[in-house]
Design goal:
Layout: H1 2-13, H2 15-44, E1 60-61, E2 68-69, H3 74-83, H4 93-107, H5 116-142, H6 146-151
Antiparallel strand pairs: 1-2
Length: about 150
């Protein structure tokens, strides 16, 4: 308990260091949560549907254009959903997937949404920052003379 009191007093003495420590912890928690979310969504549970092997794609024929298209309007989706006696259910995943892809493309410049190099480099950079954030205060504490530290108490 004395250690907690001492640590709290030291943080009150150095508010700048306390702010940096809290921000470092917040950044570490945020990075860990973000990495877990990406790994969970991409690797562990990539599809939010049951029976992924039974998914089908609906293509819409538009006489004004050549070929089929997978994007359709809300009215067309509701008509497909109303006529779907052979499907278990109809999900408008194409619209959501296209919107998410367009959003990611607008945010990423020169990097594809599934670039493996990015998936490797970003966690390594975050790990390096976390290790540096741990090493610098430990190095500073190791350079303090124990007798000098005990005199300040």
């Amino acid at each position: 308990m004395q250690d907690f009191k001492f640590a709290f007093r030291q943080l009150l003495k150095n508010p700048g260091f306390a702010a940096v420590a809290v921000l470092t912890l917040a950044l570490g928690i945020m990075a860990t949560t973000a990495m877990y979310s990406v790994i969970h969504a991409v690797v562990l549970d990539p599809f939010p549907y049951k029976d992924v092997d039974n998914l089908m794609s609906v293509k819409v024929w538009d006489p004004g254009q050549q070929g089929y298209r997978t994007g359709y309007s809300t009215d067309q989706f509701l008509e497909i959903a109303g006529r779907s006696s052979i499907f278990e259910g109809v999900i408008a995943s194409t619209i959501g997937a296209l919107a998410a892809t367009q959003l990611l493309r607008s945010l990423l410049f020169g990097v594809s949404a599934t670039d493996p190099l990015t998936f490797i480099v970003v966690p390594l950079v975050l790990l390096a920052v976390a290790l540096l954030a741990c090493w610098l205060p430990a190095r500073r504490a190791a350079n303090v003379d124990p007798m000098e530290a005990l005199r300040h108490e």
